[in-house]
């Protein structure tokens, strides 16, 4: 007798290891199979609820019109409004945005916040655009999506090459159409416009909280733990600085052009100050320079890839030499690399938990906007710590209970929660 769920899995099965949607799908399939997920729920949860493609005409500074292609994918609404960032980059693809929107669904479920997943992107090169062009691009993109976003529908946030200014433009454009100020339409806003204290540091701080819990499993203290961080932006840079403050020995860090390494440890505040001033780590004194591939293979206790997708693959996974892999980036490890890392005994803090600090504090920001009352930074950080530590321990318990690796456990836990809500709500058809 034919198995419809197996047939569906084969239909989605791809061969491109670095395709992010195929990577997400492969992990979803494994977790769904182990859970014995109902075939009907499988079909519903396996695909996005909505994919939106828009063409965005923008008057450039030259006076000519250029048309950009943009996306917003809303993966799931079972647990609440869609939630997820908007990225501006020349290499944005629909498959990437679809994968990221699904990851947001599982991420929100893992840390048990009442959102579904969404993600957006525009194919553009913001480094080659003026502030005025970026503002016009953002406002027109927002107006194209005006019927699909909102505090109860879909709540965007910053992502790659977008920031609090971008969110302020979205909030203002949405508010002009609504004819009143709607701060809760986005998160990651400036503090004065309804942003939350602690939001900028939240993703890096969440990585820190997870690493603090993970090193206990190896009987390590921060002072005797060496750390390698790939990336020096809002996740890697802040995460490295927070770990440095806590006593960790950060021995390597990188930017887009490459990395620096010192086995005796780096002065991370000084490194980041140098990077801000020089826009590059090149020329930093008393260090060894390595490229981003070499950096991943440095022996350390904690490796934190905090840059972009597909950094650890079947090609280099056997050369990874860490005890703990803390995935600050989305999708830094491919499914083919998972088994290699598992066989090497590396403890993985999967991305849908490790970098969930950002969406957790985004949820806090949304809550504060909705009630019009704002918390102190200490309260935000305390609530974040409670949420991340509880989620880490739940995940480890789930992995042990079901005798699976932590990545599979994270997907199983997330899918289980979304499936329960979908089952209880029923399918409106």
- Largest sheet, described in full? 7 strands, mixed
User: How many strand units?
Assistant: 12
Number of helices: 15
* Mean pLDDT over the full residue set: 94
Order of helices and strands: HHHEEEHEHEHHEHEEHEHEEHEHHHH
Residue fraction in strands: 15-25%
What is the topology, as strand order, of the major beta sheet? 9-8-7-6-10-11-12
CATH class categorisation of the domain at 202-354? Alpha Beta
Task: Give me the CATH superfamily of the domain at 202-354.
Answer: NAD(P)-binding Rossmann-like Domain
- Overall SS class: alpha/beta
* Distance between the ends: 27 Å
**CATH architecture level-2 label of the domain at 202-354:** 3-Layer(aba) Sandwich
Which stretches of 5+ consecutive residues score pLDDT under 50? 10-14
Describe the structure.
With 429 residues, the chain is α/β, with parallel strands linked by helices. Among the domains are: 49-182, 3-Layer(aba) Sandwich (Rossmann fold); 202-354, 3-Layer(aba) Sandwich (Rossmann fold). 45% of the residues lie in helices and 16% in strands. The chain contains 15 helices and 12 strands. It has helices spanning 4-12, 20-35, 39-45, 94-110, 131-144, 164-178, 202-216, 236-245, 268-278, 292-296, 335-343, 351-354, 357-371, 377-402, 406-425; strands at 50-59, 65-74, 82-89, 116-123, 154-158, 226-230, 249-255, 258-261, 288-290, 302-305, 324-326, 347-349. The protein has a 7-stranded mixed beta sheet with strand order 9-8-7-6-10-11-12. It has a 5-stranded mixed beta sheet with strand order 1-2-4-3-5. Mean pLDDT is 94; it is low at 10-14.
